Structure formats: C-alpha cells, structure tokens
Amino acid sequence: MTLSVHPAVPHTGELRLRVARRGSRSTAVGQFTSGSLRVLRAHYPDSSGQPSFTFVNPGGGYLGGDSYATRVEVEEGASVLLTTQSATKVYRTPQGPVRAVQHLHLGPGARLESVPDPLIAYREARYHQDTHVEMAPDASLALAEIVTQGWSPDRKPFRFEEVSLVTRVRVGGRFAVADNLLIQPSDGGTGPLMLGGRSHVASLLVVDPRADDGAVAAVRALLAERFESPGGRAAAHSSREPLVGVSRLAVPGFALRALADSTQSAEAVIHTVLNWMRASWHGQAPLDLRKL
Amino acid sequence: MSRTSTLLQLTDSALPTGAFSHSFGLEAYLESGEVRDEATLLAWLEGFLATQLTHTDAVAIRRAHVASHAEDIAQIEALDAELTALLIPVQIRAASLKMGRRLLEIARDAFPSRIVEEYSTAVAEGGCRGHYTIAFALAGGGQGLDEETLVEAYLYSTLTSLAYNAVRAIPLGQLAGQRVLATLRTKVPAAVVRSRAADPRHFGAAAPALEIHQMQHEHQRARLFMS
C-alpha cells in the first residue's frame, strides 16, 4: 500500500484523531492538527455517548497540488461520528490534483459514521481521494459521500476534470471491499450509464456484521416506500425522485448508490438509511448534523 | 496449432459458459423502457463498452494475461481477490464467478495448460473464487494468444452475447442485431487501446447509473436473466 503523497513534502493539512471509550461515553484521547485542517471540539448530539467531530478547512477551498492527510483511530468499543463544517470545494488545479488520503482504524466493536458535506468540484478541478480502512470483523463502518458540480461561468454542466474516490476496506486483516467512484466529464464520463442526467452522485458504504440479506431487504423496502412514487420505477423517473440501488457486499455489508437532482434529495436518501441503522441496531436518535 | 481456431472456439457464442442467461444490468433498462429498440440498444452497448468493459474487464484480462505469462499464481490470487472486492452489485459478482468456474471447467478439457490447472486447483482449494475474466485470459493465454488479441476478443464476444440476448428479449429482428454488432465492431479497437493506457487507480471504476440498474435488477419482478 503506497501513499499518494511523498513523505518529504509537508501536507497542506494534517489531522490525527484517536477516540476511546471512557465509561458510557467515547472521547478524544489523542488529537493533532497542522496546516489548514482543524477539528472543532466534540459535542454529543444525543444520549448515546457518541461524540460528533466536525472537520474544518479554514482556507475554504482546495487548490491544485494541495494534499491532506487524515488518520482516525477508533479504539475497542468506542463510537464516533465525523462530519464537516461545510462543503469541500475544489477549484482549478493546474498544479496537479488535490490529494486527500484518509486512514481509518476501527478496533473490536468500534463504530465509525462519516457523513461529510458534499464535495463540489469546479471548472478544471481534479480531486483524488484515497480512503484506507482497517477494521475488526465486529466493528461497524458507514461511509457516506456526495459529489456534485460547481457553478461555471459558461453555465454548462460538469466542467471539472476528474473526481476519483477510491475506498479500500480490510476486515480482520483481509482485503474485503474496493469501492471506486470516478467521474471524468470530458471523457464521456457523464453519459447515460454514468449519471443518467442527474447532477448529484451519492454513495453509502456499510460494513457491519448486522448487515445481512434481511437488513438489505429492509433498507430496500424503506427506500422504495420513501422515494418511489406509487406507479413504480417508470413513474419515479418522470417525477425525478432519486434513482437508488442497494446491494450486498462479499462480506457482511452493503453499498448504496443514488443519483439525484439536489443536495437535499441526495442527503435524504443517505440519512434515511443511516437513521434506520441507528434506530434498528443502536437504539440511537436520528442524525443531527446542525452546524456549529 | 492454429491460434485463429483456438480464438474462434474460445469466443464462440455457443461455448457453454452460461453467457446467454446474463444481461449485466441491461434487463433493468429493458424493464424501464430506456432500452427499447435498435438505436437505444446500440447506445447502451456503447456505454457498457466505454465503462465496465474498458475500466474493469479489459484491465483484468490484461493483468491476468501478464500473470499467466509469468506463471505467477500469487499475482493471479491477488487479482481474484481484487475482483471479488470491486464487483459491488451482487449479481455481477455472482455472474463473474458462475461463468468463470464454468469456463475453467471447459478450459481444463478444451484449452489445457499449466496455469489453467493451477488456477483451477486454487479455486477448488478455496484460495481463489474463480472469475470469468481471469479464466478467459488464462484459457487463451495458455494457448499462446497474445494480450491485445485476447482483450479485443473478450470485448467483442461479450458484446455479441449481450446483443443476442437483447434481440431475444426486446425483441428485435436478426438483421437489426447484426447492424448493431457491425457498428460495435468499429468501436472495439479504440476501447482496446484505451484499456492499455488505463490509469491504475481507475481499475474497477463503476458507472453509477449502470450500477444502480444492476442493483435494481435483483428485485425486478419478471426476469429472463440472472443478472
């Protein structure tokens, strides 16, 4: 496994966070930030003892050649919710792609939910994100992503060069899931099989021992009830409900993909599933991502 | 031994791999009406060629061919695990394994080589799962077919099976099917070239709308195809 950033070059922003369980709550036991990455003080949105950490990029946007490194360790039995303060905006990158590398470690029984704001790529932007997850077989992972286009002066849709999100998950030391999302608009990358005429791509990757066939069927039924009009799929297309698919992974877990016309619509799909898992598996209140 | 004859047998649409029972998501587009005639079928197959076939299958054929040439079973095992991890929709993963294991069985009798035998053993012992692209590359590579020929043959023969399946399912006239294939034949060489220069980080990149349809096929009511 190689990092895409040369170690001798300092990162534009670096963030390390270690979360452990202390009594009935999880708490940060180690924290380090440098450059243009900050983390706001944890808050506890509900009574579950799960802290919510908000990552902040005070610079406001990502530029060419920027590199970001994040490492989050969730120790045995601890739980954490990661989010961002605002959308990640990637501007023109003539100096080379923005590179973001995330390492996530989940110990036995640990739980991590990552629910960032959308990634917005503007004209001539290139963004490469690599997420490496190392988790115990009984740990619980939920990684959400929403990608969309930024406004461009000529008002034509999708003027960015490339957004590439690669997630690799190892479960109990064994390579288990590779999730590769690539959008290259100039290279036929917004055709009907790619985005189906929609502006927002949403993805949710769940790896969890509870995510069996029954859980997938329940998630599917819930999504059909919320996001399909009574006439079925054909009618859903015309009324522009989001287009949603869910499938079982080779390990306990599932992948969800959605194509939507707005951030609200994409978030509604993701939050519906996250909230179902919270209620069914953890007896936890729905997501509360109020920005601080 | 004639390589042309080997190639013709390997890519014969009547080779009993079970390809006729898989649509790789096309059937969900038939159900929604997005694919309904010659023009929409051609557009879908061109899209499939430009996405899944170029980003995943063609690159897997190349990697498997390189490993088979070096008789490097460890590299093949790594590719087998990678494919299991990156074929996300369950029916696509299952199709790759079902057709892969069947082709391996055929290859042991009809395209025997040391590397085919080694991969079969690894699958039987559980070290590998048995993916179709790997089985195809080893069956052909073991008989001396070169990488470019194998990639082109794989892409064209996969499109042929899909076109024949669509002719049955839409249904379309036989001549319409042949016109679609004649146009696709002119598009395959560019896909072969693109897959040769593919950025390694794009291996397995999914096409989101295609993937959603492949996932929705799992719960489609009336189905002719297993994927």
TrEMBL record, chain B:
Keywords: Chaperone, Cytoplasm, Nickel insertion. It comes from Sinomonas humi. It is found in: Cytoplasm. InterPro entries: UreF (IPR002639), UreF_sf (IPR038277). UreD, UreF and UreG form a complex that acts as a GTP-hydrolysis-dependent molecular chaperone, activating the urease apoprotein by helping to assemble the nickel containing metallocenter of UreC. The UreE protein probably delivers the nickel. Pfam families: UreF. The keyword Cytoplasm applies. Its main location: cytoplasm. GO terms for molecular function: nickel cation binding. PANTHER family: UREASE ACCESSORY PROTEIN F. The gene is ureF. This is Urease accessory protein UreF. The keyword Cell division does not apply. Required for maturation of urease via the functional incorporation of the urease nickel metallocenter. GO terms for cellular component: cytoplasm. Belongs to the UreF family. The lineage of its organism: Bacteria, Bacillati, Actinomycetota, Actinomycetes, Micrococcales.
